[in-house]
Amino acid sequence: MTAWAGSLRFTVRVLLVALCLPLGNPWHAVAADHAECTYFGPNRERFLQTGLRAIARPASQWSAATEQVSRLRPKPSAGLRIAAALPDWEKLDTIDRHLFQAMAEAGVRPAAKTDDFEFIRRVTLDLTGRVPTPERLLAFVHDNSPDKRRRLVEELLASEAWVDKWTMFFGDLLKNNARNAQVSRYPEGRNAFYRWIRASLAAAKPYDRMVTELIATTGTNSFEQGEVNWLVGGIVMGSPRTGQDIFDQQAANLAATFLGLAHMDCLLCHDGRRRLNGLSLWGESATRWQAWELASFFSRTNLRAVNAGVPNRVYYAVEDNVRFRTDYPLNTETGNRPPRQPFGSVANVAPKYPFSGRGPRPGENYRVALARELTADIQFARAIVNYIWREFFTIGLVEPPDQFDPARLDPDRPPPEPWHLQPSHPRLLNELAAEFATGGFNLKDLMRKIVNSEAYQLSSRYEGEWNPEWARLYARKLVRRLWAEEIHDAIAQTSGLIPEYRFSDLDARNWAMQFPEPAGFPAARGATTAFLDSFFRGNRDDQERRGDGSVLQALMLMNHPFVVTRCRITGSAQSGSLAARVFSYPDPQLVDALFLTILSRYPTAEERRVAEAALKTGDRRARVEDNQWALYNKVDFIFNH
Amino acid sequence: MSERDRFARYLKRHPHPHRPFYARPAMSRRAFFRLGGAGVTASFLIPPAWTGEVVPWARVETKNTARQVIFILLAGAISQIDTFDFKLVEGVTPREFEPVRTGGVVWPAGLMPKLGERLNRIAIVRSMRAWALQHSGMQTWVQIGRNPSAALGEIAPNIGSIVAAEKEPERLPSQVFPAFLALNAQNAVGPGYLPSSFAPFRVEPTAGGLGYASHPLADGASRFEFRYRLLGELDGALRANSPLGRPAEEFEAYYETAQRLMYNPAVEQAFSFSAEESARFGNSAFGNACLVAAKVLRANQGTRYIQIVFDGWDHHQDIYSTSNNGRLPRMAKVLDDALSALLDELKATGLFEETLLVMTGEFGRTVGPLSPQAGRDHFLQHFVVFAGGGVKGGKIIGATDPTGSITIEPGWSRDRDARIEDVEATIYSALGINWTNVRYDDPFGRGFEYVPRSKDDIYGPIHELWA
Prior knowledge:
The structure holds 2 protein chains of 2 kinds.
Chain A: H1 2-23, H2 49-52, H3 59-72, H4 94-106, H5 116-128, H6 134-142, H7 148-157, H8 160-173, H9 186-202, H10 207-216, H11 228-232, H12 244-259, H13 264-267, H14 281-285, H15 288-295, E1 301-307, E2 314-320, E3 328-329, E4 348-349, H16 366-376, H17 378-393, H18 426-438, H19 443-451, E5 480-481, H20 484-495, H21 527-533, H22 551-559, H23 561-564, H24 578-582, H25 587-598, H26 605-615, H27 620-632, H28 635-638, E6 639-640
Chain B: H1 3-13, H2 29-41, E1 54-56, E2 68-75, E3 99-102, E4 105-108, H3 113-116, E5 122-129, H4 135-144, H5 159-166, E6 180-183, E7 201-203, H6 220-236, H7 250-261, H8 265-271, H9 275-280, H10 285-299, E8 305-311, H11 328-348, E9 355-361, E10 364-365, E11 378-379, E12 381-387, E13 395-397, E14 399-400, E15 407-409, H12 420-430, E16 437-439, E17 448-449
Parallel strand pairs in B: 2-8, 2-9, 5-13, 6-7, 6-8
Antiparallel strand pairs in B: 1-16, 3-4, 5-12, 9-12, 10-11, 14-15, 16-17
């Protein structure tokens, strides 16, 4: 963990000395002045957008949203509440040990533990993107065995829905889409990539092997070998003929996606000195040369466009040492980035992984070497652990998750004033990363560890005065708004009216979580697409997925036909809509059934009174539908709490 | 020391325009004197002189001539020397642009004929210079009026949200439209740390009006009324004011706003339009946005800031191509048709004098000959157009050198390039908002300045526009 930091500084010093002595020319003269740079090309910076536009709401806002949502939820029945005593953390697993110790040191009392209703809904949504069926819910609640939560977790991890949700997650992370601002994978390529991600997750492929396949692939058809499509995403327009812009983009994508280092994109244009000051302690002294050394691992690779037989459609074949046969050349003034010119006699940059200082072995394929170095880097494990942590705990240990600062991660070597350590729990992050790496990069193991921890199972409800600064201590569950796909699928499943979406190039499917990409699904234009888009599901290019609310979302949940038509009595009492099935129940059971199905809990006394009173007013059919509609618009439907 | 030298020295001391938050002093001058003086005068016991959370650094004279603002962002960065800072480049500028001398300037009458006839209604600031050349960063910068990666940049509200917050006390109970409307601006910067009632209400204008504003059932209005009341009762006892105050009202605020927009004839009237109205504005998405903006302001339902984004000006390739709808000539025609119609419409409905129109890109494009891809690349020099809201038409503020690459004549009191922060101050001044205001309700508790570095008077409004 500390070795790479030391070797980085050493490398930088060696470079500075080596370059300055023979050339007598400060090597930063290569870097063009950022402000006067005329080489900024279109969309080249899109991977920086997540940082500059601050997707991460400050902890104080997540905290405020949680406070509001938890106040809008009724209190749980007293019998199922468990008092919150600080556990004896010496005996705990990794996550609990660190989090509860930090809370104790800060003098912060954690929230109470979730009751069974809260827990099953939360963990089902977080692991599989679905809400529990009322049958499964009641079976769980009435189960008396002490290990029922762990067994539920196993059941969810083994489900098909788990594969669907995490295929969507990795599709977002790897930015799988049919068309972005620079290049088209076309639907065939996107579908192939989608199938590859899905198959990898279904087969429990270790994460390091997944990434190695993406980086080191020798596939010759992006329409058939899905893994080729990650490299295709690095193609940019306007590159010099000698390929440097594409090598640079591959390196920038690799750093942001697999290392959480979006700042590498900046370094591919200029040194960090004076420009990353205040943003990244590592970046301040990192150099364009180091970024080139990373890009050089891609410098022998060409993605050859092959005519696919259909007009205007190409697939890509990976080839090494065919078109590009030298290391990263310094021979151009054109392209989307500042000039790349030789230093004296040095006209090519040899590949070197910046954090290990090592290059390829003699005769080794560059990308194979890169995958080897990358997956051995602890930062690789940290980045994915943090991304996944964020999905369960709402705020990452490092926020934003693609703005890691490698010089501020080691608690044994804290950075100088006024910098401070970046992660909220540095030792926890490093331990989790180390356990993830030595445990075989098993994603399910990581998730299992997270959801089985006591800290994950804390309630979002907090007794007493809450201070928003405690959000980073994870002293209570921070609510998150459901994804667009989770809302769609929850409404479809609970109403019993499950749509079927047919496509010309994909099998028919029922669930939005099974779409191969968010943009343009289920149809290029259309009402359901507009419904899903209003929840900011992003386009995997320049618009990231967001959890923000909006007036439009309120209009959609109240008035969109997708919601309103599912609050209808259609079909029979045996196999129809939810409203049809419960229609003939006596009022109290009817209200119970609606609440258990849609909100995964029983109604409170007050809610029961209002709902039953409504049933007795006017047309009963209409009132059943109205009650169902109201539950879809309650705040505890749209949030995971 | 001249203003220009003072600014240059400031820039030298702060190579990033604004320092990151941990490098700022932890105590402001005001806090120091308050605490320092407290021991002497026991003024701890006296409540502070101000009652609200908004405190200005200085007493200023705002122009206060406008009620509302239309802000048009030409995203992608329009080429300034082909449009509002026209420079003829021999052998490069297409003959069809037909530059003529009119209204005191050289104007591409072939490219934008209608605006050429309305130059006496608009003012152009040509000494504008951008801070950086990156689309996303600068588009955010333009909308929040400060460096997004500097102190408080992460939670900084859109200028429109500040305007909405400032004008909140003037809102009548009968007014139902959101104060801040964003048309064709899905990626408009949000309200930052301000409550969501000041968030931009994002709409893509369509002829049919505001989508999903009615309940899709037979007898929809009364069914909806029953349902909304039931929802309120089911959640009623639990939807009381949260002790956290404004941040916690977010969820209810969205539903409440949504409900007030439904079955509202004023909404239907303002947001829908006929084919013939759309044709008058040029039958384009941008034209429709200008049309809806004018109708919304006419409805006088509480909207005070409308942001319109006209995207696609990033012409790195084939900038002058006439066979492609996405290149300069065709897009300039769309701009010409829509903006002229908007100016006419505002004039005809009597809103012109009270509506400040601001139009700019996030930066400019290269000057002189074209790039190898027959386009223009990113460039710092650009322009901003002001119209209405008391601004004198037919004014050109500032001048660039014959190539259009640098300012040779700033044209205003601070005697330096105009920056987007100065445009921000101008907008606030026009609306009667003290641009040196600081809000002390930000989550970091360090005070949020409307215009950065107000206490050092680094930026200020371009009052020459009114002269």
